[in-house]
Amino acid sequence: MATPTPGSPAPDRGHIPLAGLAIVAAQFSINIGAALGKGLFPQVGPEGVALLRTSIAAAILLAWVRPWRIPVARAQGFWLLCYGLTLGSMNLLIYWAIQRIPIGIAVAIEIGGPLAVVLLTSRSRRDFLWFALALAGLLLLVPWPGGTGSLDPLGIAFALGAAACWALYIVFGKRASDVGSKAAVAIGMTVACLITVPFGAARAGAALLDGHVLMVGLAVALLSSAAPYLLEMMALERLTSRLFGVITSSAPAIAAICGFLVLGERLTGLQWLAVCAMIAASLGCSLTSGPTLRRATDDAMG
């Protein structure tokens, strides 16, 4: 995703509220798409939904960007391959996670990926405090032996796997973006299908050709990939990276709201406390981390 450059003009303050609303709308779009996708799990499983999302989104992006017109060096091709495989794995793991745990909790755990990048690249003790806060939130979600937690441990493990993929996505995405952000996303989404298509085809088979499944799959691809990408691209022309990070820190709360509205998922008081801890950690990280790191984290949001 394109982000403001250090030498770019300051954002027009009159457009900031509208741009902020665009980011919030993008977050709702992503999570409503995830909730609709979860509704298809009984028919095609999370693997089938991941196949539909990535393959339809790849087709849309390829038609729009036409990345084959852009020359790609061998070194760039390697990073694009890593980027796409990580993207496909992240999609598959987060769908496996939300099959077993509420969407809001899965997203709260997943944002631990960018926070891990902060920890590994930071020289400030302050950033370790944000990571510690995120870790405390995660520990509140763990179903300890003898406790009353009802979360599926495997669902938590899959969400942690998605978080690890998100961290790698940031690293590989910065390398892959040398060919241009739009081309990198289009190629990366196509490569992601190398992960999702075999799993989805093996799990769902002919059920993927059902008319209702295809229509919902199209909606998932548009809501979770195409629409938020366009909204965020427009917003980032008017927002600084810091403001973008602050606004997107609300992602777990928005995910929880969408899970409730679409699927009737309800979080307990303790689970909401954990989600709020993760949001606070992400917010603190966005406000205090360096510009380079904020741009890297912003790129992962697309």
Describe this structure in words.
The chain has 302 residues and is mainly α. It has one domain. It has 13 helices and no strands. Helix 4 (103-110) runs parallel beside helix 12 (269-288) and helix 5 (112-121) packs parallel to helix 12 (269-288). It is globular, with a radius of gyration of 18 Å. The model is unreliable at 1-11 and 291-302 (pLDDT under 50).
Question: What is the topology?
Answer:
Layout: H1 16-39, H2 41-65, H3 74-100, H4 103-110, H5 112-121, H6 125-141, H7 153-176, H8 181-204, H9 211-236, H10 241-248, H11 251-263, H12 269-288, H13 291-300
Helix pairs in contact: 1-9, 1-10, 1-11, 2-3, 2-8, 2-9, 3-7, 3-8, 4-7, 4-11, 4-12, 5-6, 5-7, 5-12, 6-12, 7-13, 10-12, 10-13
Key phrases:
single chain; 302 residues; mainly alpha; 13 helices; 0% strand; globular; disordered N terminus; disordered C terminus
| First-residue to last-residue Cα separation | 6 Å
Count of separate structural domains: 1
Averaged pLDDT? 79
Shape: globular
What's this entry about, in short?
By secondary structure, the protein is mainly alpha-helical.
